[in-house]
Amino acid sequence: MTKILITGGTGLVGKHLSKELKAKGYEVAILSRNPKQENEYKWDISNDYIDEKALKNTSYIIHLAGAGIVEKRWTNKRKKILINSRVDSANLLFKKTKEFNIPLKGFISASGIGYYGGITSNIIFTETDAPKNDFISKICVAWENAAEQFESINIPVTILRTGVVLSKKGGALKKMNTPLFLSILGTGKQFMPWIHIEDLSNLFIKAIEDNNFKGIFNTVAPNEDTNSSFTKALAKVLKKLVLPIHAPSFVLKLILGELAIILLKGSRVSSKKITKQYQFKFNNLTDALKDIYTL
Ligand SMILES: NC(=O)c1ccc[n+]([C@@H]2O[C@H](COP(=O)([O-])OP(=O)(O)OC[C@H]3O[C@@H](n4cnc5c(N)ncnc54)[C@H](OP(=O)(O)O)[C@@H]3O)[C@@H](O)[C@H]2O)c1
After folding, report:
1. What pLDDT, in 10s, does the model give residues 107-121?
2. Domain for residue 286, yes or no?
3. CATH of residue 276
4. 16, 28, 33, 93: which to mutate for ligand 1, most atoms within 8 A of CB?
5. Is 64 in the pocket of ligand 1 (CB under 6 A)?
6. Nearest one of 90, 116, 115, 125 to 104, comparing CA atoms
7. Which of 55, 100, 189, 214 has its CA 20 to 30 A from that of 121?
8. Is the pLDDT assigned to residue 78 strictly greater than 80?
9. Which residue range forms the structural domain that includes residue 21?
């Protein structure tokens, strides 16, 4: 049985992916700071520790671990946690893979479309575009560089630059789905590239099963939405109202500080490369939302 080790496998994406992998007959192990289940193993990134049993016989590592980007204000301390939880963790995986001599067949890492920076414009960013200089872009660059170290020991790397993940069980939709009204943020013109969790999960599995699926991919659905079109589509599916006034940018900046950029700015991201290799189940936002809310 092929063994897949998922870091942060206890999170939104990891839980869904684990279930799908198990259904396909893979053995799944999870690295967690607080292991609870039988297949969960301890790691302690700041103390350079990984339970060796987690890595034993592993064929692929899927690196999803990372502190929540929109969970807390970006103080200097929080910024370090956001970076270290993704980068020091990948460095530790690299070190232990070599130390324990694990013959990995692939290292697959999440990244974000934040790589292209917090920018609202009509430029359509593709995988070969340069990163920007803001904090969200810097996280992604450091995260991807840490993942790419595996190539130096001839282990193929796949990196998925992911848009907003749509799932009923958590993430952005849960935050947007407030009891009465939904609100458009700032101008509402910021792009909001998204992907249904089922397509994302399929893409992580494709990175295991398809030898040609290596390198960097924007994992975003082909249909483009802005914060305004997204909020309106969500309201329609949920049969709720959209607040008649937009949530003002300055208020969000006051409440959230620098982190507000994630909500108020949004790059237009190309899905051209990924659609050459993968046929999306959910291209259209309304269909994706209906699927999520009618299950
Ligand atoms: N969800 C999205 O919309 C989205 C979009 C783009 C990119 N991504 C990226 O994709 C990855 C998976 O997303 P997700 O939504 O599944 O995330 P999630 O639900 O927040 O789960 C991430 C997991 O990372 C671990 N973690 C949290 N803080 C950590 C820390 N300080 N140090 C080490 N591990 C820590 C946790 O596992 P334990 O508590 O078990 O250790 C947690 O279950 C993340 O890296 C995320 O940034 C997500």
Report:
1. 999 999 999 998 999
2. no
3. 3.40.50.720
4. 33
5. yes
6. 90
7. 214
8. yes
9. 3-165+193-221+268-281
Beta strands in 40-98 (DSSP E): 40-44, 49-50, 58-63
Query: Is 68 a pocket residue for ligand 1 (Cβ < 6 Å)?
Result: yes
For ligand 1, atom 23, the nearest C-alpha belongs to 8
% residues pLDDT > 70 (the chain): 100
Q: Whose CA is nearest to atom 13 of ligand 1?
A: 13
Ligand 1 centre distance from Cα of residue 66 (Å): 4
**For the sheet containing 3-7, what is the strand order?**
49-50, 40-44, 27-32, 3-7, 58-63, 106-112, 157-162, 215-219
| Tally of domains within the chain | 1
> Which residue type is seen at 45?
I
Burial 65-102 (b: 16+ CB within 10 A, else e): bbeebeeeebeeebeebbbbbbbbbbbbbbebbeeeeb
> How far does residue 7's CA lie from ligand 1's centre (Å)?
9
Ligand 1 close to Cβ of residue 32 (< 6 A):
yes
Which residue's CA is the nearest one to ligand 1's atom 29? 67
Establish whether residue 67 lines the binding site of ligand 1, counting it when its CB lies within 6 angstroms of any ligand atom. yes
Domain membership of residue 247 (yes or no) is no
pLDDT digits (tens, 9 = 90+) for 24-68: 999 999 999 999 999 999 999 999 999 999 999 999 999 999 999
Cβ of 90 closer than 6 Å to ligand 1, yes or no, is no
CA of 138 from ligand 1 middle (Å) equals: 17
Q: Flag whether 37 is in a domain.
A: yes
Write out pLDDT tens, residues 190-227. 999 999 999 999 999 999 999 999 999 999 999 999 99
**Ligand 1 atom closest to residue 165's alpha carbon, by position in its atom list:** 3
Q: Domain for residue 200, yes or no?
A: yes
Please tell me the distance from the alpha carbon of residue 259 to that of residue 277, in angstroms, as a whole number.
33
pLDDT of residue 180: 77
